[in-house]
Amino acid sequence: MSAGLPDEPPDPGLPDPKEVEELLLGGRLRYTRVDAVRLSGVTREFSGRVWKAFGYPSMPDEAVAYTEGDVAALTRLRRLMDEGVLDEDSVVRMVRAFGQTMARLAEWQINLLTSMLRGADPGEAPSAEAIRSIVEIADKYLDDFEPLVVHAWRRQLAAAGTRALASAATRDGRESDPDAPAARSPITVGFADMVSFTQVSRELEELELARVVERFEETASDIVASCGGRLVKTLGDEVLFCAEDPAVGAEIALSIAAAVKDETEVPDVRVGVAFGPVLPLMGDVFGTTVNRAARLTSLARPGTVVIDAELAAELRDVPAFQTTRIVRRPVRGLGIIQPYVLRRMSANGSRPSGPHT
To answer: 124 and 118 in contact (C-beta within 8 Å)?
Structure first.
């Protein structure tokens, strides 16, 4: 859908904006909103909800701002409702998930391309030559990029589906009363938080700071993926991850702390990890367990991992890890909690050396 480009004449040194938009949309702008509603068979109100959920700007009814792809998308969504697969509210929620995810992906990709092709001070706007190069790449390789997006989505969908099945199997195995309300299965949730990030952000130039954040996120996400966990979200100086298996969650936490310690460009991290039920919603996780993990980061020293009593109990018989109980602490919003320091067990079974919390 068109973003409502201005009617000003294009810069003679730049590609025509409308041509670029239609190239990236994969079709010519040929329909008004009235046309799109009529051809797809949906209501005007529903189309408005869908466009807002996708993150598209509102357009006047008479604006020629829609492609064949827009009409096809509305038609597919209508079919899903007609066949009873989803109701209208579920469609809107699903579309919002697509829209928010794709918006971040698109910005990320454009920023990556412009930084590669800018050829000048990275703080400056891309040159006309760089813009033309991006358009040429899109024209030549967009059909190669698009299947990669679908492939990544299917891979992540398969992983999420497998986790859901495993969680259901675990829950069914624990439930003895079929009439009891379903309980959420406990999982391991962890936060890794860069130390003194506010001070670091004051000392570094914007580009240097961006590189530090990117390196931190790359390190953490690679470890989470390789261990078999899930990176829930990144928050600049902080990452949130989770794992079904407590041992996997512990391995991720220790690996992130150790890997970041070896990174000369990235400050050390404090890691807090908790075990318990969470509410999964919109790709995120919520609940007391998540709050407890976040609060535990404040109790950890740089480069160390602090866990709650629930995770310590789960790891008690896992020979690879050692948990050490420390002083009980008051934690804002959660009262008094019993934290433990998590370490690896050394090869000879002795207590590893390192900072104490």
So the answer is: yes
Q: At what angle do helices 33-40 and 44-54 cross, to 10 degrees?
A: 110
Which residues lie across from 217 on neighbouring strands?
A: none
* Integer Cα distance of 137 and 60 in angstroms: 32
Taking only the tens place, the pLDDT of each residue in 76-130 is 999 999 999 999 999 999 999 999 899 888 888 887 777 776 554 555 666 777 7
DSSP 8-state code for residue 278: -
62's CB contacts (< 8 A; 6+ apart) are 32, 34
With beta carbons less than 8 A apart as the criterion, state whether 108 and 116 touch.
no
Q: For residues 227 and 178, give the distance between their C-alpha atoms in angstroms, rounded to a whole number.
A: 34
CA triplet 18, 20, 26: central angle to 5 degrees?
A: 100
User: How do residues 289-308 score in pLDDT, each as one tens digit?
Assistant: 999 999 999 999 999 999 99
Helices 128-174, 17-25: axis angle to 10 degrees equals: 30
Phi, psi torsion values for 306, nearest 5 degrees: -120, 135
Residue 246 burial (CB count, 10 A):
22
> What is the Cα 298 distance to its own chain's centre?
23
Rg of the Cα atoms in the chain: 25
Task: With residue 68 as reference, give the H or E element that holds it.
Answer: helix 68-82
Backbone torsions φ then ψ of 162, nearest 5 degrees: -65, -40
Half-sphere exposure of 49 (CA within 13 A, CB side): 15
Q: Angle at Cα 116 formed by Cα 112 and Cα 121, nearest 5°?
A: 105
Assess contact for 15 and 131: CB atoms under 8 A: yes
